[in-house]
Amino acid sequence: xxxxxxxxxxxxxxxxxxxxxxxxxxxxxxxxxxxxxxxxxxxxxxxxxxxxxxxxxxxxxxxxxxxxxxxxxxxxxxxxxxxxxxxxxxxxxxxxxxxxxxxxxxxxxxxxxxxxxxxxxxxxxxxxxxxxxxxxxxxxxxxxxxxxxxxx
Length: 152
Hints:
Oligomer: single chain
Strand order of the largest sheet: 1-2
Structural class: mainly alpha
Largest sheet: 2 strands, antiparallel
Helix content: 55-70%
Strand content: under 5%
Number of strands: 2
Shape: elongated
Low-confidence stretches: none
Number of domains: 1
């Protein structure tokens, strides 16, 4: 099993594999936002911060599609910075580093509702944020930091 993994890293390269994984995560999240924008629902998951049992905001279709477009663009940058679709250059490095700070900033949070340093911690969203959303942001942020720093 380990020999297969070593062969995969040698054949594809760690950067390309990291870019494919990062891009795939973001393309999936982009598709999920398009699904939500057109009325799709996931009953068991809370994705909007809440206070007093109510969502703090209700995103419009346009805003949700804008987030989907941004996530798709971020996924494309991951593929670019890793050399999967274009040759990495300074521009892709700068984009990757900026995206890295966006995701790491999201993981740190706003010190109220989202991120590891939030004050409101006893909601369903807070549980998902702590166990899933913030760790994914750290994973994505470090991936982009590596991809951006490597090509600088």
